[in-house]
Write the structure tokens for this entry.
Amino acid sequence: MAAAAALLPPRAGGDAPPPDAYSTWLQQHFPAAYGNPALEASVWGDHADPDGDGCGNLLEFMMQRDPNVADAQLGLRCRLEGGDLVATYRETTATGHSVTWLGEWSGDWSLWLAFGVRYQTLETHSGYRLVEARVTRNRESQMFFRLAAHR
């Protein structure tokens, strides 16, 4: 843990902030690169995608995937069920991290909304849970779903 704290930017007064679960995860997956500003955009940054699978590190962490192994499936599966759009995905059970995320839906790819999304945990595993998010279609002729992560 002390090594992870040493790589975090210092606070005013010189003390490094305590590592959170996401920072620790970055350190574990990118031990030689983490903290190097020249490699942030391409290797260890939130939106970096070093394995080239289309999923940035922040989402890889939230879905408890390996950011150094390209996954054929991104882990988010969507289907229509009755009048609902249903998305199923893995979500970390790690606590003490600075990342928040939520499901968002759109009928046109331009306006993304978070209201009306209902969540249910389907299964719990070591390090993650399988979550289902549902949105009632109402009068939408088409719907899209995404996971948005923020720090």
Observations:
- Confidence is low (pLDDT under 50) at residues 1-14.
- The chain has two domains: 2-62, 77-150.
- Residues 34 and 44 are 6 Å apart (CA to CA).
- Helices lie at 2-7, 21-29, 40-44, 57-62.
